[in-house]
Amino acid sequence: MSARPRPDLLCPLCGGANACTPARTGRFDDFCWCQAATFSAELLARVPEPLRGVACVCAACAAADIQTRAALG
């Protein structure tokens, strides 16, 4: 992890707003919705390689992944 959050407010999967608090504030110690979220390995694998571990997936993509995985059983 870098010393400062990447100032990118767009989801690397859909291009929509990711609501990333650290990206907006520049601080990792500010609470973000994603700290309480669960991201599957499959979802994170869809993030383009240069953005893995540095760009925040949005809540809509995370929720769609959960719904898809639940439907597949």
In DSSP terms (H or I, runs of 4 or more residues), the helix count works out at 3
Mean pLDDT: 89
Count of discrete domains: 1
- Percent strand equals under 5%
Helix content: 25-40%
Straight-line N-to-C gap: 33 Å
Largest sheet: none
Radius of gyration: 12 Å
Please write the string of helix (H) and strand (E) elements. Answer: HHH
Classification by helices and strands: mainly alpha
How does the overall form come out from the CA principal axes?
globular
Would you count the extended β strands for me?
0
List segments where confidence is low: pLDDT < 50 over at least 5 consecutive residues: none
Task: Explain what you see.
It is built from three helices and no strands. The chain has one domain. 15% of the residues are buried. Helix content is 33%, strand content 0%. The chain is an all-alpha fold.
Question: Topology, pairings included?
Answer:
Elements: H1 21-25, H2 41-45, H3 59-72
Give a summary of the structure in a few sentences.
33% of the residues lie in helices and 0% in strands. It is mainly alpha-helical and 73 residues long.
Sum up the structure in keywords.
about 70 residues; mainly alpha; about 0% strand; globular
